[in-house]
Write a structure and sequence with these properties.
This protein is an all-beta fold. It has one domain: Porin (Beta Barrel), CATH 2.40.160. 0% of the residues lie in helices and 54% in strands. It is built from no helices and eleven strands. An eight-stranded antiparallel β-barrel has the order 4-5-6-7-8-9-10-11. It is globular and about 70 Å long. The N and C termini lie far apart (55 Å).
């Protein structure tokens, strides 16, 4: 490989079958490899290009609280922008109890997942818009209810911090998350004191509603 002014070039043998490897791109002085100079490694509050339509989706996950695990599946709608995300879901847990979730979450920190991959994009070409894939830290509050057999009903408010893998261009699974927080049951059926909650889930995209 030789140096010629402001670019590198090399010669390839015809045996490789390479017809044309030339492409136009923007580069930063601090990082001469193919890059998106306007996207910092760490970004507070806003990062990525979210789908700002109303997204109809199915959420499947599991909740751990009070030394019990509650798998669930719910149908709902969500909407987000670069800073906040709101959602509402209604469904059932494994024991056929009716559950509902209303959430409001704020994006605190987003890191492009490609920044964490040690392989240069020169050696890892792809057609996907990988800069829309992020690891995202968020904080939020959730209003949750459950109605089932006697003694299972509760009406809960919780605050939580979470980590989500977000792909704003994904057609099927745009979001996978894990969150931890503390909740309080206003009915006092579950507990008379605040209690810890761990929740894991993933969203399956159905279609977008342009309202």
């Amino acid at each position: 490989m030789r140096w010629n002014r402001n670019f590198y070039f090399t010669k390839f043998s015809a045996a490789y079958g390479i017809a044309n490897i030339v492409r136009v791109m923007e580069c930063c002085e601090s990082n001469p490899e193919p890059s998106a100079c306007e996207y910092p490694f760490l970004n507070m509050l806003s990062c990525g290009r979210p789908d700002e339509t109303y997204l109809l989706n199915v959420e499947v996950g599991s909740i751990y609280q009070q030394v019990e695990v509650f798998p669930y599946a719910a149908l709902g709608i969500s909407k987000e922008n670069e800073i906040v995300r709101g959602s509402f879901h209604v469904g059932s847990d494994l024991f056929l109890s009716l559950v509902s979730f209303s959430r409001l979450q704020v994006h605190v920190l987003s890191v492009p997942l490609t920044s964490l991959i040690p392989v240069s994009r020169w050696e890892n070409p792809t057609k996907d818009k990988i800069l829309n894939t992020y690891a995202r830290i968020y904080v939020g509050t959730e209003f949750k209810s459950k109605h089932g057999k006697k003694g299972e009903n509760y009406l809960e408010q919780n605050i939580h911090v979470g980590l989500a893998a977000v792909n704003t261009d994904a057609r099927f699974i745009p979001r996978i998350f894990l969150q931890y927080g503390y909740g309080y049951d206003f009915t006092k059926n579950v507990s008379t004191k605040p209690y810890p909650i761990v929740q894991f889930g993933m969203n399956f995209r159905l279609f977008s509603l342009h309202l």
